[in-house]
């Protein structure tokens, strides 16, 4: 059996058949490296948050989610008890869940905040199948907008152990559950329509001047492997910590989906750069300016990790950790600054080359060699952790993961409606300590962005300042940013300081129209 097994679509009479309980799969490369590097202080979780305008029937949703797990049997697994002398970590595939992964926490004014906190601090156990949990957050019976950002709506919050699964795979599971809940055929969603540009623009509050932009002749993957990348300058100026901070923090926001200007002579030509390229450039601008303000290694190159998913997003998508990690390097900023469009075009050329390259080892040759060593897992774990500590100064600056438009409608029938917002976040462990993840609904006009950081790197106030700088940097990468206010009902007041919070949206401007089909 392969490590990444596609979804199984058995005939109806065979779907209830039980599989052998002793089916076992050795940990693939990404799973093993993640397992070696687990830290209790920074749980390895993936957080996925889907906002729906309506409400769902509890038992119908639970049944649909269990059926979705059965259709993707690679999810139903637990780690076999492993001793230090064993040759491999091993997954054991189970015929059914060991525990019910669906929970309905009591509604309340802080239900969503508590669920987000659990998503960052409580990792689903690896020794119980499946290594994920789905929490359904509903508003109080009296209604209101305190529990969710949609009046009367529902939030599906999926927490995943990243040692077992990644974000795209879990979105596929949620899509299957939505199809089963709504009893809709498993068909690709309609092509999204580009939102018409709006004439109302929000004035971005002035920030410090943008950093000088480098001239990028070829954007090499790494000009000199021995050069240490720039680290994001740590900042705890507003926190008087008496003990070393642990865990991750999370901020959620949304950005306007940039409009594309057609080529003057070829209306059907593809844009010279994508939103993913704009996010990479915005992250580079943010990092460079932040470090300049903090007098922190202004001459070091900024290296951004960019995951690439080569799997087809359809019902037969292989489930597991299937993305490969690539690097986009931005050299230090020498004067004079070239035009911003030059930086975007060079970044686009680099990312196109990375995406079109033949798939290689997901984590590179060193990780492949480490997992191939003929050593028991105990010594191999010690070796991996020691080498990771030695290589910490050469770790990339940040991770930028863009799913783009979610390739599924995530439609939960007339009562639940179609997803109006999708956020997800990746772990932000030190020494990198920062991940920026984005997604958009397939018919929406907002980019939903999550900033996740290690508390050993930033405190809450510093992270909010960093997010404001990222928003401003992203706005400079396109000429018509559009309004920065969310659609009606898509905002919530800032939460109390805690593990996760949603940022306040700037006031002003007019909200764009709701996507068609967003309400029942």
Short description:
The protein has 520 residues and is an alpha/beta fold. It folds into two domains: 149 residues, Chloramphenicol acetyltransferase-like domain (Chloramphenicol Acetyltransferase); 215 residues, 2-Layer Sandwich (Chloramphenicol Acetyltransferase), CATH 3.30.559.
Give an overview of the whole structure.
This protein is of the alpha/beta class and 520 residues long. It folds into two domains: 34-182, Chloramphenicol acetyltransferase-like domain (Chloramphenicol Acetyltransferase); 248-259 and 271-401 and 431-502, Chloramphenicol Acetyltransferase (2-Layer Sandwich). Helices cover 24% and strands 18% of the residues. The chain has helices spanning 29-36, 58-71, 111-121, 167-182, 275-293, 340-356, 365-372, 377-390, 413-416, 460-475, and strands at 24-26, 45-52, 77-79, 90-93, 102-103, 132-137, 154-161, 248-256, 302-309, 323-330, 398-405, 421-425, 434-440, 446-454, 500-502. It has a seven-stranded mixed sheet. A hairpin with a 5-residue loop joins β13 (434-440) and β14. α2 crosses α4 and α5 (275-293) packs across α10 (460-475).
């Amino acid at each position: 059996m392969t490590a990444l097994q596609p979804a199984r679509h058995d005939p109806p009479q065979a779907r209830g058949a039980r599989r052998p309980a002793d089916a076992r799969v050795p940990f693939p490369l990404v799973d093993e490296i993640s397992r070696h590097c687990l830290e209790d202080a920074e749980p390895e979780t993936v957080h996925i948050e889907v906002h729906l305008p309506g409400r769902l029937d509890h038992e119908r949703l639970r049944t649909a989610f269990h059926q979705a797990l059965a259709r993707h049997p690679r999810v139903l697994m637990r780690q076999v008890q492993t001793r230090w002398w064993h040759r491999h970590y091993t997954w054991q595939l189970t015929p059914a869940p060991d525990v019910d992964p669906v929970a309905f926490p009591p509604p309340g004014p802080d239900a969503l905040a508590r669920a987000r906190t659990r998503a960052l601090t409580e990792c689903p156990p690896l020794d119980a199948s499946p290594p994920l949990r789905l929490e359904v957050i509903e508003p109080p019976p009296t209604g209101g907008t305190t529990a969710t950002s949609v009046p009367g709506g529902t939030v599906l919050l999926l927490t995943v152990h990243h040692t077992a699964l990644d974000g795209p795979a879990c979105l596929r599971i949620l899509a299957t559950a939505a199809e089963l809940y709504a009893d809709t055929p498993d068909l690709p969603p309609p092509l999204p329509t580009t939102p018409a540009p709006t004439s109302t623009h929000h004035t971005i509050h002035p920030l410090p001047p943008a950093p000088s932009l480098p001239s990028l002749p070829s954007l090499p993957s790494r000009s000199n492997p021995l050069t240490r990348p720039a680290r994001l300058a740590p900042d705890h100026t507003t926190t008087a910590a008496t003990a070393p901070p642990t865990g991750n923090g999370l901020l959620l926001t949304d950005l306007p989906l940039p409009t594309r200007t057609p080529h003057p002579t070829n209306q059907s030509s593809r844009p010279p750069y994508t939103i993913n390229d704009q996010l990479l450039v915005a992250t580079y601008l943010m990092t460079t300016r932040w470090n300049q303000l903090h007098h922190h290694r202004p001459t070091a190159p900024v290296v951004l990790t960019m995951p690439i998913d080569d799997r087809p997003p359809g019902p037969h998508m292989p489930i597991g950790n299937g993305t490969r990690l690539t690097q986009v390097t931005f050299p230090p900023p020498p004067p004079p600054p070239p035009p911003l469009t030059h930086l975007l075009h060079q970044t686009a050329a680099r990312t196109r080359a990375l995406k079109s390259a033949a798939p290689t080892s997901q984590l590179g040759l060193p990780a492949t060699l480490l997992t191939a060593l003929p050593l028991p897992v105990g010594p191999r774990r010690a070796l991996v952790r020691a080498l990771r500590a030695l290589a910490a100064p050469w770790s990339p600056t940040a991770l930028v993961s863009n799913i783009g438009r979610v390739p599924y409608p995530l439609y939960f029938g007339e009562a639940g409606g179609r997803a109006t917002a999708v956020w997800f976040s990746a772990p932000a462990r030190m020494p990198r300590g920062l991940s920026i993840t984005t997604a958009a609904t397939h018919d929406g006009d907002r980019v939903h962005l999550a900033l996740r950081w290690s508390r050993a790197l930033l405190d809450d106030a510093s992270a909010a300042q960093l997010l404001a700088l990222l928003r401003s940097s992203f706005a400079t990468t396109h000429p018509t940013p559009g309004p920065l206010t969310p659609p009606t009902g898509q905002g919530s007041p800032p939460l109390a300081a805690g593990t996760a919070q949603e940022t306040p949206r700037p006031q002003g401007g007019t909200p764009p129209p709701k996507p068609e089909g967003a309400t029942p």
